[in-house]
Write a structure and sequence with these properties.
Elements: H1 7-21, H2 26-43, H3 51-64, H4 66-85, H5 91-107
Helix pairs in contact: 1-3, 2-5, 3-4, 4-5
């Protein structure tokens, strides 16, 4: 990853782009973006801005407050897991949400166990 000179400008220009550039296939990228948007909608995060800014804002807050980020992710995944239990969605759908969120956190260097 790049050297951080100004943390705010680094995050605002890189988090979303690192995520999108890490996905080679255009169709997969769109699916991952849609899943990430659904996650942000569920947690009510930064609803008035576009996906790029939401990603960057989430990373800034997630790096500052690691437990908050983990708590938001777990709450979303528990909700989706309950939907699997009720047979509203397939288990593979839940797995796809996990993959999208995990990739986003990995490229943004947010540690999620």
């Amino acid at each position: 990853m790049q050297t951080i000179v100004d943390e705010d400008s680094f995050v605002s220009t890189s988090s979303y782009h690192m995520f999108t550039y890490s996905i080679r296939n255009e169709v997969t990228r769109k699916y991952y973006e849609r899943r990430l948007k659904r996650f942000f909608d569920f947690i009510g995060f930064d609803l008035q801005t576009d996906l790029e800014e939401r990603c960057n804002s989430f990373v800034r807050r997630g790096l500052a407050e690691g437990e908050w980020a983990i708590s938001q992710i777990i709450s979303f995944l528990q909700f989706e897991k309950e939907r699997v239990r009720k047979r509203e969605i397939a288990a593979a759908t839940l797995r796809n949400f996990v993959k999208a969120i995990k990739l986003f956190c990995e490229v943004s260097e947010i540690h999620v166990p």
